[in-house]
């Protein structure tokens, strides 16, 4: 194959030869598109891959220009690139738009000036390949990274990233800086264990290892701020791999408020325990799901259980599922009605005896007016119920006796009346 590129002067002919079957085979089997133009950006040759994109045979490209194949704006852009590269005498890598079978794609192009034996530039050689998928992947990766960074920085929690092997901190967000009172630069010069008080390092690093092996997901510990303040945190951690290296991401949530609330709740529960354990009647508090929050000793004694073991459980643990369902319905009526109810109910005590209770159930309402559970006080009224039943039984017996007495009196009256009538009749017959 012999192709000739003329120089721009037209005074003499300079030749660029691509000779031999080996070169031709190489050009035709490369997956890239290859072309050559003279100094006027007129095509001299191309390989089959490029010709196929243009819908022509390779030899048909000779003496044609980009205007023959591309929109004017794109053709002028290509020719401007050619002119600049030939003038500079240096190769360039370009990413540019390309029309293939009516579809716009992105290609990576390498254009280099072609020189004569004397070293003068006599044309341009181009090779390009489709990078549309690669570009889409890069853009998707970039967008994903931007989204991650946005989430990373906008998180209400502190986020730290560490090298899983060296434990060196490699990234953090603004809330991480705020949590420990240190700048990002300071944090990235530290190991993960340096975030914690010395007496919490061992347990926290054990959790770090558990996170790295995906054996645990959460732990509670403390961080030490730059000013020396200890801050309770809940950490959720997970391992990940980036560019072949193992890392760990830790999301630190400041639980100071929760801890204070828990301490206040525990204090109130202690006070409540002291109060209700001095009530001789059975007393308890339940949440909205009818789970015991607290029960007093009298209740525990009645059902034969440690009151502490009732906490978090429903009545099913002490009365069975059937009775628990009934108690649940009572609780729901109290909560839905938002008013106190007095209920008489029968339970089976620890000794398998039937026990009658008079139960007063009231809704628990928080400071926002929301129903958050029920409170109950139950008094053993078995003796009263037995007395009532005995009175009822006696009343029934007395009524039966009265009926018998009245019946006998009626019969006596009828008998007397009959005797009197007989006597009267006897007297009449004797006269």
Short overview:
By secondary structure, this protein is α+β, with helices and mostly antiparallel strands. 42% of the residues lie in helices and 28% in strands.
Report on this model:
The protein is an alpha+beta fold and 431 residues long. Helix content is 42%, strand content 28%. The strands form three sheets. Strands 2-1-5-4-3 form a five-stranded antiparallel beta sheet. The longest helix is centred in the last third of the chain and has 49 residues, at 382-430. The chain is elongated and about 175 Å long. The termini are far apart.
Any chance you could write out the topology, listing elements then pairs?
Layout: H1 21-29, E1 33-38, E2 43-46, H2 48-54, H3 72-88, E3 92-100, E4 103-115, E5 121-130, H4 132-154, E6 158-163, E7 169-172, H5 174-180, H6 184-187, H7 201-212, E8 218-224, E9 230-242, E10 245-254, H8 256-276, E11 282-287, E12 292-295, H9 297-303, H10 307-310, H11 316-319, H12 321-337, E13 341-348, E14 354-365, E15 371-380, H13 382-430
Antiparallel strand pairs: 1-2, 1-5, 3-4, 4-5, 6-7, 6-10, 8-9, 9-10, 11-12, 11-15, 13-14, 14-15
Helix content range:
40-55%
Number of separate domains: 3
Distance between the termini: 175 Å
Per DSSP, the total helix count is 13
Low-confidence stretches: 1-20
Oligomeric grouping of the chains: single chain
Indicate the CATH architecture of the largest domain.
2-Layer Sandwich
Could you describe the largest sheet, including whether it forms a barrel? 5 strands, antiparallel
């Amino acid at each position: 194959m012999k192709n000739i590129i003329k120089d721009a002067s037209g005074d003499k002919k300079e030749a660029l030869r691509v000779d031999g079957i080996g070169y031709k085979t190489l050009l035709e089997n490369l997956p890239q598109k290859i072309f050559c133009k003279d100094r006027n950006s007129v095509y001299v040759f191309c390989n089959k891959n490029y010709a196929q994109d243009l819908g022509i045979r390779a030899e048909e490209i000779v003496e044609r220009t980009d205007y023959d194949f591309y929109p004017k704006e794109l053709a002028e852009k290509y020719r401007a690139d050619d002119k600049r590269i030939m003038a500079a005498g240096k190769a360039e890598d370009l990413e540019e738009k390309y029309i293939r079978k009516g579809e716009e794609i992105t290609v990576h192009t390498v254009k280099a000036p072609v020189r004569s034996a004397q070293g003068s530039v006599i044309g341009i050689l181009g090779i390009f390949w489709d990078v549309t998928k690669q570009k889409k992947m890069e853009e998707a990766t970039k967008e994903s990274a931007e989204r991650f960074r946005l989430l990373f920085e906008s998180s209400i929690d502190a986020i730290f990233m560490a090298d899983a092997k060296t434990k060196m901190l490699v990234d953090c967000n603004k809330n991480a800086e705020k949590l420990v009172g240190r700048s990002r630069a300071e944090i990235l010069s530290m190991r993960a264990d340096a975030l914690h008080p010395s007496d919490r390092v061992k347990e926290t690093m054990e959790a770090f290892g558990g996170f790295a092996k995906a054996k645990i997901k959460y732990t509670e510990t403390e961080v030490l701020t730059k000013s020396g303040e200890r801050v309770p945190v809940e950490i959720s951690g997970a391992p990940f791999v980036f560019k072949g290296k193992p890392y760990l991401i830790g999301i630190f949530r400041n639980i100071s408020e929760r801890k204070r609330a828990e301490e206040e709740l525990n204090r109130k529960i202690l006070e409540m325990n002291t109060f209700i354990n001095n009530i001789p009647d059975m007393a308890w508090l339940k949440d909205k799901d009818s789970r015991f929050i607290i029960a007093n000793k009298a209740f525990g004694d009645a059902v034969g259980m440690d009151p502490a073991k009732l906490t978090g459980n429903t009545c099913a643990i002490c009365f069975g599922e059937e009775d628990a369902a009934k108690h649940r319905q009572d609780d729901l009526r109290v909560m839905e009605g938002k008013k106190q109810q007095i209920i008489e109910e029968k339970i089976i005590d620890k000794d398998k005896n039937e026990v009658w209770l008079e139960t007063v159930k009231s809704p628990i309402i928080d400071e926002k007016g929301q129903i958050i559970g029920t409170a109950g006080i139950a008094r053993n009224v078995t003796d009263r119920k037995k007395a009532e039943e005995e009175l009822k039984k006696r009343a029934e017996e007395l009524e039966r006796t009265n009926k018998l007495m009245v019946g006998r009196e009626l019969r006596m009256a009828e008998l007397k009346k009959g005797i009197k009538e007989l006597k009267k009749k006897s007297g009449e017959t004797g006269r």
